[in-house]
Amino acid sequence: xxxxxxxxxxxxxxxxxxxxxxxxxxxxxxxxxxxxxxxxxxxxxxxxxxxxxxxxxxxxxxxxxxxxxxxxxxxxxxxxxxxxxxxxxxxxxxxxxxxxxxxxxxxxxxxxxxxxxxxxxxxxxxxxxxxxxxxxxxxxxxxxxxxxxxxxxxxxxxxxxxxxxxxxxxxxxxxxxxxxxxxxxxxxxxxxxxxxxxxxxxxxxxxxxxxxxxxxxxxxxxxxxxxxxxxxxxxxxxxxxxxxxxxxxxxxxxxxxxxx
Length: 260
Fold this sequence. Notes:
Elements: E1 8-10, E2 13-17, E3 26-29, H1 55-58, E4 69-70, E5 72-73, E6 85-86, E7 91-94, E8 104-107, E9 115-125, E10 128-135, E11 143-150, E12 162-168, E13 173-180, E14 183-191, E15 199-206, E16 213-219, E17 225-232, E18 238-245, E19 253-259
Parallel strand pairs: 4-9
Antiparallel strand pairs: 1-2, 2-3, 5-19, 6-9, 7-8, 8-19, 9-18, 10-15, 10-19, 11-12, 11-18, 12-13, 13-14, 15-16, 16-17
């Protein structure tokens, strides 16, 4: 998302303050600074030397062998099969647009609907807040889900158990859901006016500010808060991450899923 000129830089950290009619966040980004994300244009961004660009690099020096590491996903691996499992033919990495280095994840516009991919070697953990970027070229038939706290053993969406932060641009709403064996158990939704043709930034508060509440907040490219949805649920403290696509003709992009 675009960062206005009125921010302060302290060494390698940038404290970003959005001075709009509705202040959304004042967050510290230690990974890199996203700049020049124009409406309808590809962002001009770069990752500084020494910043992890893969989960393996982020985990170097720790991680306990095969234990999952915290989310550091910028799709620099440039591959879905071999990195994710399940419906890998429904998603692809692309250089069309990105907010990290070169690649973003794209829902394949010829893919099957109601599809998902999961990555078991990284996880989201309660008590943390995560940020990610999402791009929707149009509002119709573009519903994207971020999966987290996912239980192992899923073979398709019909037996998925875990949480989902859902960007429902088709119906102009955002949601935080808990699903069990492919069926919704608890849902929380908020109506939202949906901008298209620009990178949106979302923050996913996984019971960080509140020990019993998961909150999804979405802002536009100028930092204006568009809406938030919250779900009280405490069943899972951690689990795999992944992505969900509902429509067959989707063409959305996501990038830069990082822990704040």
